[in-house]
Specification:
The protein is an alpha/beta fold. The chain has a single domain, classed as Spore Coat Polysaccharide Biosynthesis Protein SpsA, Chain A (Alpha-Beta Complex). 27% of the residues lie in helices and 27% in strands. Strands 1, 2, 3, 4, 6, 7, 8, 9, 10, 11 and 12 form an eleven-stranded mixed beta sheet that branches. Strands 5-13 form a two-stranded antiparallel ribbon. A hairpin with a 5-residue loop joins strand 9 (191-195) and strand 10. Helix 1 crosses helix 4 (128-140) and helix 5 (220-236) packs across helix 6 (248-258). 40% of the residues are buried.
């Protein structure tokens, strides 16, 4: 197995809530998308290879807006998340347009991945330190059945514009033992609260670790996820053929509950932010401006 870690970016979503291809929507004052800053931070941490998981019909858009300007800085491989790339015996239900989710997206790299890898969302800003943290783990500690994740303090992931859904990490002896997904979490009274099924607001520790879909794996994860994804199709296709999807946090939860695999929980004190809705964009633009003013990023990320 190649030991040089790979950065894998999930960029195949449809952006239905956002209203467009948000993965390459510009947020910086020099035409950058969030993904530009993610790749820049990863390169600073030591990553030299990038696998970009996209839908094939979006390749030209990614090439024109992103890839042609970064090729001199990092090796880029396209991986395509295809709707009909399913296990033997399964086919796409008539009328289905929705992708199968991030578990299926990760499997798009199965024929090409040859090294430990970090996998992130294209439209999430994770902060510089997370890339260094996971790079160091991938180069020194990771083993075939010992994966990792980077969690964020809950208070650093909340939105100023509304409630969010977060997966809170349950940790035992430094390893992930489960993910508790809570909806309708808001910033409240200097901390965090969520609304339960009865409509009551329940306080949460603001330093709880939240999973923001930042994982470190080896190619061994493919074996686990192929079994999990096939089981998902067998279970869900009959009842919800057009909308069912499977996501990486769910797959990880199933994996650690049923196999010997373990996930080391690493953490970042950086502030996470993203663009789920178009209303989030001004906040992201302001943060990017602040970071450039502070000298954390140059005006032109890709100046030779």
């Amino acid at each position: 197995m190649n030991k040089q870690p790979v950065l894998v970016i999930l960029a195949g979503g449809m952006g239905s809530r956002y209203g467009g291809l948000k993965q390459i929507d510009t947020v910086g004052d020099n035409g950058e998308s969030i993904i530009d800053f993610s790749i820049y931070d990863a390169i600073q941490a030591g990553f030299k290879r990038l696998f970009l998981i996209i839908r094939k019909e979006h390749q030209q858009a990614f090439e024109d807006s992103l890839v042609k300007k970064i090729r001199d800085f990092i090796e880029v491989t396209y991986c395509f998340q295809e709707m009909d790339d399913l296990p033997s015996g399964f086919s796409v239900p008539e009328g289905r347009e929705k992708p199968w989710g991030t578990t299926h997206a990760l499997l798009a790299i199965r024929k090409q991945i040859d090294a430990p890898f970090a996998i992130i969302n294209a439209d999430d800003f994770y902060g510089r330190s997370a890339y260094k943290t996971i790079y160091d783990y991938l180069t020194s500690e990771i083993e075939d059945d010992r994966f990792c994740m980077v969690g964020y303090r809950l208070k650093n992931t909340l939105s100023d514009s509304g409630s969010v859904t977060r997966g809170l990490c349950q940790v035992t002896d430094g390893y992930l033992s489960g993910i508790l997904e809570l909806q309708k979490i808001i910033s409240k009274d200097g901390g965090a609260s969520y609304q339960d099924g009865n409509g009551d607001w329940i306080s949460l520790p603001p330093d709880s670790l939240a999973s923001m879909n930042y994982w470190g794996f080896t190619p061994k994860i493919i074996d686990y996820f192929q079994v999990i994804f096939k089981s998902f199709l067998e279970r869900e296709l009959v009842g919800n053929p057009l909308k069912c999807e499977h996501v990486i946090p769910t797959a990880v939860g199933e994996m650690i509950a049923t196999t010997k695999a373990k996930v080391k929980v690493l953490s970042s004190k950086d502030r996470w932010f993203g663009v789920t809705y178009r209303e989030d964009k001004p906040m992201v633009q302001e943060r990017i401006r602040e970071y450039k003013t502070q000298g954390l990023y140059p005006h032109d990320l890709w100046k030779k």
